[in-house]
Amino acid sequence: xxxxxxxxxxxxxxxxxxxxxxxxLAKREEKFLTLCDDxxxxxxxxxxxxxxxxxxxxxxxxxxxxxxxxxETEILRSLNED
Length: 82
What we know:
By secondary structure, the protein is mainly α. Helix content is 80%, strand content 0%.
């Protein structure tokens, strides 16, 4: 069984109904793998800002929430084009 990149696993967890297509795209499309990495990094940043007590936290949390939604849309677009 092939090793699944942590970013790809996270995307499969978000979109389990597209698991096979996610794995296929991640193997053959570097751009899709980068998109998965961006998704993981964004989720990690969102977790950080949600727990931060910084005055900037609410603004940053909102920014990362919006970015996450954009990345999810882009991931789904890639999957639908596959």
